Amino acid sequence: MSIELARAHLDRFGRGGEIIESQESKATVELAAVALGVSPAEIAKTISLYTEDRSAAILVVAAGDAKIANAKFKAQFGTKARMLVAEDVEPMTGHAIGGVCPFGNPPSAEVWLDASLKRFDMVYPAAGSANTTIALTLGDLETISEARGWVDVTKLPDTA
């Protein structure tokens, strides 16, 4: 179960006990924001995309109101932004749709943090299932996710 992968990963940093589990689904940005009483932008969604050869996943953790900017993504990763198809999500990320997060992923999955998150002190990524999350500062997210770095591959509403 993917929540167990996320919890085991978070336990390595002493944070597994901080997973927020609820009856309400947090499978979408909007549902998560309502359940947590925060703005949709503060939800740190994990966008799952293919590497150039489609053999692995690039996981971009971005603000809930951000969307992938194709030109920026291609400039950063050298390939067109292609979302994982449903049957590849769990094998390539370690998590089912709705619970994809930057914790407990296979070693081949590259985790990157997007600059859209830098507007917030605290963000709320999923924690392995559609009804789990964890509250993390950006510094903690960077450390705990073991991200490869920060990128700027999204656009926000009202931007081109």
Automatic annotation (TrEMBL):
Residue ranges that the Swiss-Prot or TrEMBL entry lists as coiled coil: none
GO MF, one example: aminoacyl-tRNA deacylase activity
CDD domains, A to Z: ProX_deacylase
Residues annotated as domain YbaK/aminoacyl-tRNA synthetase-associated: 24-143
Pfam families cross-referenced by the UniProt entry: tRNA_edit
Taxonomic superkingdom: Bacteria
Designated name of the protein: Prolyl-tRNA editing enzyme YbaK/EbsC (Cys-tRNA(Pro) deacylase)
Lineage: Bacteria, Bacillati, Actinomycetota, Actinomycetes, Propionibacteriales
